[in-house]
Amino acid sequence: MTKLESLRVTQFQYFAVVVITLFTSFLLFPGRRRMDSSSTIIAMIHLGSFTAQYGAQLWVTLVAGLTMFYNLPRHMFGQVQSRLFPMFFLWSLVTSAVTMATFVTLRPLDLWEAAHIAQGICMLVGFLCAAVNSLVIAPLIVRNMVAAFSMEVAAGLGDVIGYADMSEMKKTNPAYSACYKKFRRCHGLSALLTVLSLVANTVQLYYLASHCVPL
Length: 215
Known about the structure:
The chain has 2 domains: about 30 residues; about 180 residues. It is about 80% helix and about 0% strand. The protein has 6 helices and no strands. Helix 3 runs antiparallel to helix 4 and helix 4 runs antiparallel to helix 6. The radius of gyration is 20 Å and the shape is elongated. The mean pLDDT is about 80. InterPro entries: TMEM205-like, Xanthocillin_Biosynth-Assoc. This is TMEM205-like domain-containing protein. One of its GO terms (cellular component) is membrane.
């Protein structure tokens, strides 16, 4: 990973820390809120941030990633993903924080009932998954992915599209093997957290749909 790429990933981490700090402060100091809890604008922001997060998760998970993997050379796919991952996880972190913050504004914690607690848990799961992905896992994925694809390009395998059998390269290049294994491990954990967040958001979507005015 170049110094510029490393700096870019670090900036995403710093911004994620700021978002987490602001969100935590919002929850810990409810008396400092100055928003009208009955405002339609707050409800609109709540729904908008939730749908923005949910839509991004569906798009990146089911459309963008698969489309690029099966249509771009591996090294180009890696370059795009190295920029997409940090932005996607930061986007998920910001939108999940806004979603829960506006929910707490509309429904103060001391007034929560069972349904509100269930919603709060779903939103908290989405926030925590995004925080772990943004702060910890995304930098590891980017670092190891860029290194692995760089070695593939050096070996003349960077222009392969889709799946490529790298078993021989793993045997002859221990550095590549270690880098690739770490990338796959981090990517798998990140995917698990993303799916967990997607499930939580789907439960939240079901709750919202069940309380909608009949169309």
